[in-house]
Amino acid sequence: MRQMLNGDEAAAIAAKLARVNVVSAYPITPQTIVVERLSEFVANGELGAEFMKVESEHSALSACIGASAVGARAFTATSSQGLMLMSEMLFVASGLRLPIVMVNANRSLSAPLSIWCDWGDSMAVRDCGWVQLQCESNQEVLDSTLQAFLVAESLSLPAMVCFDGYILSHTAEPVDVPGQAEVDRFLPPYRPKYKLDPEKPATMGAMGVPEYYEEFKFMQQAAMQAAKEELVKADNEFAKHFGRKYGLIEKYHSDDADVLLLTMGSLSSSVKEIIDRYRRRGEKVGLVKVRAFRPLPVDELIEALGHAKAVAILEKDVSFGSAGALFLDTAASFINVDKAPLMIDFICGMGGRDVDSLHIKEALRAAAKAAKAGEVKKIVRWLGLREKLVGLEE
Amino acid sequence: MKLPPGAIITEPGNSANYETGGWRSRKPEVDAAKCTGCGLCSMYCPEPCISKSKPAVVNYRYCKGCGICAAECPFHAITMVEEERT
Amino acid sequence: MMEKPFEETLVAPGHRACAGCGCILAMRLALQALGKNVIVSMATGCMEVVTTPYPETAWRVPWIHAAFENAAAVASGVEAGLKSLGKSGVKSVAIAGDGGTADIGLQALSGAIERGHDFLYICYDNEAYMNTGVQRSGATPFGAWTTTTPIGKVKRGEDRPKKDLPAIIAAHGAPYVATASVAYPVDYMNKLKKAAAIQGPTYVQVHAPCTPGWRIDNNKTIEVARLAVLTGAWILYEVENGKLNVTLKPPKRRPVADYLKMQGRFKHLTEAEIAEIQRMVDEQCKRFGL
Fold it and tell me: B72: left (phi > 0), else alpha (psi -120 to 50), else beta?
């Protein structure tokens, strides 16, 4: 059934369709609608879950850990400061190998305080051992959230589905909402291998002494690598049931292009629009969209980008003192690869700054210039920066 | 021996494989004649390693020699003696 | 074949607690009172560390450790999870030290109580962050030496009174709040049984000496804990649906100096400082009708 839904609503409906047992979440702009919708579903009896009115995000994820440990399907949602507050527990949830699913409305980090979109929050936790997906549309939010449960539970790894705050979370788009029966066929009930049960007492969260800790971390990494295959499997399975498929990355007119753009999330739609315009004029440019950021689809990136002369990465984040995370990961993927494109890292859209067609064209021009010159003079650049305010003269 | 994920331990109480008796330098000796089997020593033992019986029986594999049993026994039936090790 | 000693105890020996540890005793007595149909959510701290050095565990009940400040949050998730799955007959029990309760753990505890989860919270109170080497907590009593309240020329020990945690929890309207002591194990176990039988959030704080932290001999644990009660420094009571009931009234309250002089952490106290502590204890006892 097709409905006009914003990203938050799409996420809430996905959690409802997934028949989550426990929702434990704390409100934070721009995720609040997720929490509100879910509490409505529970209040109406549409979702037979325990809705925990937790007093902070740290407790939200801690409660999910407790619930998941006893075999319940647990769900939370957050953004920005909330993601930071629960960040300690993100690592714990992954280390405990609990398949908790969460959605994150990408929002910039304080200070200064900002409620608007960028990827600062998601990127800050990219190391935590959660599968991390970025969504282009609200349809993708719903679909990826459903897939996340399947992937998380098959691997015993938590998974987060990220979507741009306000741009997706608060913008209504037409979304195909699957029926419960079909979702039930796609996503079976949660059957944990290990759980807390007095009939079979187990200890979770022991002290990992030096003789064993490294091995547990190796196993976590191995599970994350295995997530690539599980994500593909889930995607294929999803396509069988619902006719939609996303992949680890998406190639958009990229195979025959010398100049490529690389980005994630809602920005992909804007870029596709510009690519279309260029293609109509006969200019060979393309987009590679990354959907699965963790695990990083290294082979897919090499295959998709390797033939290009220059790639401009558009990302809404920066690792202070270094460069943007998507650029760093992409560049690193090409280490020891013979044919590697030139790369330019464009930091853009910070704190909700709009990334418009002029910005995207600027990036394309820069990539084309680099491709022609065979060199990149400045690797990290900022798009849409109000240069006068920071004392930069033109 | 492959590790289970997440450092989960599925054998309850397997700390019993680690014998803490090697920690002590004094050990409790129960005077069977004085012991009434009241069980206070057993109730207060942190390990636990002394039984509620008449007389109380110490499990020396775990006894750390803290001396609480001797201190709390109302009948002074337990004495802590220096342990001789070879 | 390795014989399984004391198989009936739900906290097995072989744990790495110090000789004479009051807290591990509190753990064993607690599980003895509560039985095997529990799921324990424990905070980081002495008890967590000494009982679960991978690959060993002293626990013969399901047990989870997640972090330091969230035992109550994890336990509330356990409770909600069990409820959502329609599982009954299993009690969610949160256990944390005074550090993981009074200070860093207070928010999670407050939230869990406010939400009214059916769980029991046990705070084992050894009056400092012992596992990290005896640093003060909000539950450290006035005048005590700790490594972060050392005795120097300018400052002499803890200069703040002990945070009244049971009162805070009682003020939340929890149906049952109690204090206990390892020196009074039957009273402690009865209180735990009572608390566990109540459907709702309940709280028991058990005073449990730490031999290295309090600077006492290993065999003095119970004697010191007893003196805390007999001097009125630690009062045994319960608050049941807002009604206070003192469960042990010392017939003739002993001077607090008897309690303080047994412990190295108080050995620096002058007579004037001891008198000040006596005054504080007298005031506290007056409020409880002792």
Answer: alpha
Q: From C13, which residue of chain B is nearest by alpha-carbon distance?
A: B47
Contact A63 C57 (CB under 8 A): no
Inside any domain, residue C14: no
Shortest CA gap C53–chain A (Å)? 5
Q: Identify from A22, A56, A62, A88 which residue to disrupt to test chain C contact, counting C C-beta atoms within 10 A and taking the largest count.
A: A62
Maximum C-alpha span of chain C = 61
A110: number of Cβ within 10 Å = 12
Q: Which of C65, C85, C111 sits opposite A205 (nearest CB)?
A: C65
Q: How many domains does chain C have?
A: 1
Q: Do A66 and C60 make contact, defined as CB atoms within 8 angstroms?
A: no
Domain boundaries, chain B: 20-82
Closest residue, chain A, to C41 (C-alpha): A66
C131 within domain boundaries: yes
- Our CA-based measurement puts residue A59 at a distance from the nearest CA of chain C, in whole angstroms, of 5
Examine residue C7 and state whether it is found in any structural domain, yes or no. no
Nearest chain C residue to A216, by CA: C54
C10 part of a folded domain: no
Chain B partners within 8 Å of A91 (Cβ): none
Asked if A174 and A109 touch (Cβ cutoff 8 Å), the reply is: no
Question: Which residues in C lie closer than 8 A to residue B44 (C-beta atoms)?
Answer: 25, 182, 185, 222
**Residue-by-residue pLDDT tens, chain A, 394 positions:** 999 999 999 999 999 999 999 999 999 999 999 999 999 999 999 999 999 999 999 999 999 999 999 999 999 999 999 999 999 999 999 999 999 999 999 999 999 999 999 999 999 999 999 999 999 999 999 999 999 999 999 999 999 999 999 999 999 999 999 999 999 999 999 999 999 999 999 999 999 999 999 999 999 999 999 999 999 999 999 999 999 999 999 999 999 999 999 999 999 999 999 999 999 999 999 999 999 999 999 999 999 999 999 999 999 999 999 999 999 999 999 999 998 999 999 999 999 999 999 999 999 999 999 999 999 999 999 999 999 999 997 6
Q: Provide the shortest C-alpha distance from residue A265 to chain B (in Å).
A: 31
Domains recognised in chain A with CATH numbers: 2-242 (3.40.50.970), 249-390 (3.40.50.920)
- CB contact, 8 Å: A204 with chain B? yes
Which candidate from B19, B51, B66 shows the least CB-CB separation from C20? B66
Probe site for chain A from B1, B2, B3, B8 (most A CB atoms < 10 A): B8
Given 3.80.10.10, 3.30.70.20, 3.40.350.10, 3.40.50.300, which CATH number is that of B20-82?
Answer: 3.30.70.20
Q: Give residue C245's domain range.
A: 22-287
Task: Read off the CATH number of the domain in which C255 is found.
Answer: 3.40.50.970
The whole-angstrom separation of Cα C193 and Cα C26 is: 14
ipTM of the complex: 0.96
Chain C CA closest to residue A72? C81
